[in-house]
Amino acid sequence: MKHGRIYHNGGIVQVTEENSRVRLASGRLLDEKYVQWLPPLEPGTVFALGLNYADHAAELSFKAPEKPLVFLKGANAITAHRCITRRPADVTYMHYECELAVVIGKEAKNVCREDAYDYVAGYTIANDYAFRDYLENYYRPNLRVKNRDHCTPLGPWLVDRQDIADPMQLNLYTYINGVKTQQGSTSDMVFDIPALIVYLSEFMTLSPGDIILTGTPTGIADTQPGDEIITEIEGLGQLINTVVDDKTWFESN
Amino acid sequence: MSLVIDQLRQQCLPEVMRSLGSAVYGVVLNDQKSVAALQPQLYAAPYKVPPAAPVLYIKPKNTFTQNNAQVTLPTNERSVEVAASLALVIGQRTTAVTADQALAHIAGIGLVADLSLPHNSYYRPAIREKCFDGALPIADALISIDDSAAIGQLCLETYINNTLVKSHKLDNLVRSAEQLLADVSAYMSLRPADILLLGVSYQAPQAKVGDKVTVSIAGRSEVSFTIEQGEQR
Questions:
Q1: How many domains does chain B have?
Q2: What residue in B sits closest to A147 (Cα-Cα)?
Q3: Model-level pTM?
Q4: Do the Cβ atoms of B108 and B130 come closer than 8 Å?
């Protein structure tokens, strides 16, 4: 099943998907274009992976790392489906990153590879924007590049683990204004989902609601104010975001 | 006064942080002495130039622990750096504040022991080193504060097995409390009960398995914990 959260009639309500529409608990169906989406869960600790696809690492002139290159995000970075993300006026290169997001379902410590999927609740889509002008060689990628307010759309649906036969065989796509600019497969990850859960749970306890963004394949491109960015993952749906300039951002915040 | 500020001031800080889902941000290279010690390296690879923006890291919720905790080190680790630091505890939503407005957004000052496995590079995020379970013992009490000069007068003491091993003040910062909050909130909003740490010393004292550690501000706040051995492989 696909689970979502929307703001509806004065409160936060849990919804499910039915024939591409949003189903309220009452059974009533809403058009997904006209609901106020929230991230599909209240995020716990958010992990993200750098250089976790060999082709993307090569695109950035890096060798794939020998251990997972993990960084963290705060809740301030997360936003929902059909929301806006600000491109500051001084930025010359802001690129999307379509990523499979793995949501942890139960407390995990010292997990072995064979059991790793038991700790997964499900999957969703993240668009982990980066603002390359702000890159510095200290704890890179630094927070100014990766933890800006609302720079990481998440959703729309949290899809139950049982509904995805093999999360390591999913195609990913990104479209800028309808034109496909990124295409890859989760099969090309350097460290797969079990490897990431094993790695993290060796030194820290993972909790329900923690989220691992597993990295992006090759095909990044600059985005401009007004661009509609669709990140899509096979079986999970499409996550839509619009890039806006400072004026639009401050007028709506 | 907001409910959250009351809660922060009256209840055990780490418990409020856990219940409200606080985010904790730390900063390295924020005191002149640490920057001076590393100065030549900051111009060499892989850094090439000294940092322009605050060098931040995140301490996630699994690191939060409280007074009298047993902190178990990750597999095969035997020692840990103990960096006493002060915490700006946010009292109201803080977005793009100026330095002048910054301290009005603070509910008070907390005390933490920011633990790291020793590491000698700031190039990549140090997740295993800084984010292992229990890597942030947090004192219960919040200290109320009037201005940043008062913050710089607080003397942080670190004791290992009841011996004073380090005593320092955060009075020689690269970015003062209010400047740091202004620079960080320019792109990253902080929410009530979120925390911004004011910085850690380069090569802070190391504690080893079996040690009892106390970090204190004389007469005002303290947090103690022991270092336990993790799995050996």
A1: 1
A2: B188
A3: 0.96
A4: no
